Amino acid sequence: MTNLLNDLINSGISQSLLPLLAQSSEVSGSADSVDTTATIIQIVIQIVVLCFISYCTQTFLKKLGYEKAWYAWVPIAATYAILEAGEQQDPVIWMLISCVPGIGLISLIKLIPAYIRICERLGKPPAILWTFLLCGLGALIVPIVLAFT
Q1: What pTM did the predictor assign?
Q2: How many folded domains does the chain comprise?
Q3: Sequence-distant (≥ 6) Cβ neighbours of residue 14 within 8 angstroms
Q4: Domain span including residue 92
Q5: Is the residue at 83 inside a domain?
Q6: Alpha carbons 5 and 36: distance in angstroms, whole number
Q7: Fewest C-beta in 10 Å: which of 41, 59, 75, 116?
């Protein structure tokens, strides 16, 4: 076994495979900086989207006369505010259910009727809600529509 290993080392095969097995420090350094830059850009975009949606939610909660419209800036509290503004029963329980991974999807049972009630209270047809929910962008578009139309 050692003779085979010595023969492999002494032959040119190991020397020719070395560049394929090892990465240059220049390549990994630039790849790390690209990954870091992409991550920072993604985080900034997510923060901007969160702030804009929170602002829109706060705006339509103010239109409804909801006293604690600032709850829109706290993600879990925003769910509570939407449920309460939509006049749903037990908003605290449904807010807590929405925090549980997997099971949280059940909270849509109360969020959709809450948004329908909010649409009615703002004088908007609930059909706009269904249109945006069916296209998959409802969570992003509905607060914008309710805030600015």
Answers
A1: 0.70
A2: 1
A3: 8
A4: 17-148
A5: yes
A6: 41
A7: 41
- Report yes or no: 86 and 115 within 8 Å, Cβ to Cβ: yes
Cβ of 56: how many Cβ atoms within 10 Å?
A: 20
Cβ pair 56, 144 in contact under 8 A:
yes
The answer to whether 88 and 55 have CB atoms below 8 angstroms apart is: no
34-74 tens-digit pLDDT? 788 888 999 999 999 999 999 999 999 999 999 999 999 99
DSSP 71: G
Which amino acid does the sequence have at 43? I
3-state SS string over 4-15?
A: HHHHHHHCCHHH
- Does residue 38 lie in a domain region? yes
**Domain membership flag for residue 12:** no
Cβ–Cβ under 8 Å, residues 132 and 116:
no
The burial of 7, by beta-carbon neighbours within 10 Å (0-12 exposed, 13-18 middle, 19 or more buried), is given as exposed
User: Tokens in use for 145?
Assistant: 């529509």
- Residue 78 to residue 88: CA distance in whole angstroms: 14
